[in-house]
Design a protein that fits this description.
mainly beta; Immunoglobulin-like; 6-stranded mixed beta sheet; 5-stranded mixed beta sheet; 6 helices; 22 strands; globular; binds copper (II) ion
């Protein structure tokens, strides 16, 4: 009798534990935030979630005063994030408003071969003006990408890429914020607005969700909350993303979940082309923490790579003279490039070309551009958090001192 009772109570306890730890994903996952982007709405057709992507051309402002001619989906690059739940059946209508044919490949998904979106191999190309239908069951969870498998070099270089996030059917736990950031790079000659799809090297703009700092949205995080960030990369190079003030773990890739025993703590995650790295962390320290690619040139704008090293060379007035013959010329700093940040108003390049470094901080200009944003960790998040600076406790900011007084 006692044995039976204890069995029953054990069963009840297990059921209670399961109901506490595992929640039905469809109504309780934390929606993904695509900073500077959006999530694609859908309609139900019976039990099928129906999405509509429109491949098209448009202008995107990478930062105020700098517009770029892009290709993407529904007026956006990256295209709007598709969000669904493991077990869903989804239908995606793809309308082509581009001047050439396209397809969409669902990167990392297990699906019927004919839905894989590879032009010529698994389907006919979607010609301009045509709409194609993709429909399949979602048999996995995780972070995946969508992109053309038709004239990839041109179409991806111009911005055609997007996220597909599939939440697990049963959530092991909830996160407080869930961000998705696409890493990309562009070659846009100074004074122009068209990315060069022939570029393989010497990219001069590096973006988070096709925005460059200071055009990138800050990442907001609550102290001791659980933050997830999904990084995707379809550019030509890898991007080691470094975050200050926190230690994180890679919990998943586009190939699936990383077992907990294999998750090592780090502060930088390298995201190679064709991959997704999902990281999670619990920020403990409030502040305004840099969040950036650690390739130094990737955290700058309009970086010119084909110039002689001018360190130590006096270039007074040389820029103006050289620009008479070469309008695109912008010099490198004589004593390093810190002076450019102090005099950025004097460093204006050609039209539609942002300065290399432009951000304004609470203490001075911030010598960063490109793949850079700020992780804002606060005890409480308010509508003002995104637009206000961290209020440092007294005595916790590095300060100028008198060396002789300090030595005594
Ligand atoms: Cu990078």
């Amino acid at each position: 009798m006692n044995y039976k009772l204890s069995l029953i109570s054990a069963k009840i306890i297990i059921i209670l534990l399961l109901s506490i730890n595992i929640v039905n994903a469809s109504d309780s996952y934390t929606p993904v935030i695509t900073p500077n982007g959006s999530t694609l709405p859908y309609k139900m057709d019976g039990s099928v979630k129906v999405f509509h992507l429109i491949a098209e051309q448009f202008k995107r402002e990478f930062m105020p005063g700098f517009s770029v001619d892009c290709w993407g989906y529904n007026g956006q690059t990256p295209g709007p994030t598709i969000e669904a739940v493991e077990g869903d059946r989804i239908r995606i209508l793809v309308t082509n408003k581009l001047p050439e044919h396209t397809t969409i490949h669902w990167h990392g998904l297990f699906l019927p071969n004919g839905m894989d979106g590879v032009g010529g191999l698994t389907q006919h190309y979607i010609d301009p003006g045509e709409t194609y239908l993709y429909e399949f069951d979602l048999v996995q969870h995780g972070t995946f990408m969508y992109h053309p498998h038709a004239d990839e070099a041109v179409q991806m270089a111009l911005g055609m890429e997007g996220f597909m996030v599939i939440h697990p059917k049963e959530l092991p736990y909830k996160v407080d914020h869930d961000y998705a950031i696409f890493l990309h790079m562009w070659q846009i000659p100074p004074g122009t607005s068209k990315p060069n799809p022939n570029a393989m090297f010497d990219f001069n703009y590096f973006s988070f969700n096709s925005k460059i700092y200071p055009g990138t949205a800050p990442i907001l995080a609550k102290e001791n909350g659980r933050i997830r960030v999904r990084f995707a990369n379809l550019s030509m190079e890898s991007h080691p993303i470094h975050i200050h003030g926190v230690s994180f773990k890679v919990t998943a890739t586009e190939g699936g979940d990383v077992p907990e025993s294999a998750q090592t703590p780090t502060t930088t995650v390298n995201v190679p082309p064709g991959t997704v790295k999902t990281i999670e962390f619990v920020p403990e320290y409030a502040g305004d923490w840099p969040f950036h690619c650690h390739k130094a040139h990737h955290a700058m704008n309009a970086m010119e790579h084909n110039l002689p090293n001018m360190m130590g060379v006096n270039q007074t007035n040389a820029d103006k003279k050289i620009q008479k013959s070469f309008p695109n010329y912008m010099s490198m700093g004589t004593n390093g490039m810190g002076d450019m940040q102090e005099h950025s108003e004097h460093m204006k390049g050609p039209k539609n070309t942002p300065p290399m470094m432009l951000g304004k901080g609470p203490f001075d200009n911030i010598s960063m551009g490109g793949m850079f944003t700020v992780l804002k960790v606060r005890k409480e998040l308010t509508p003002e958090t995104a637009s206000t600076w961290y209020d440092h406790p007294p005595g916790t900011v590095s300060r100028k001192v008198d060396i002789d007084t300090e030595k005594k």
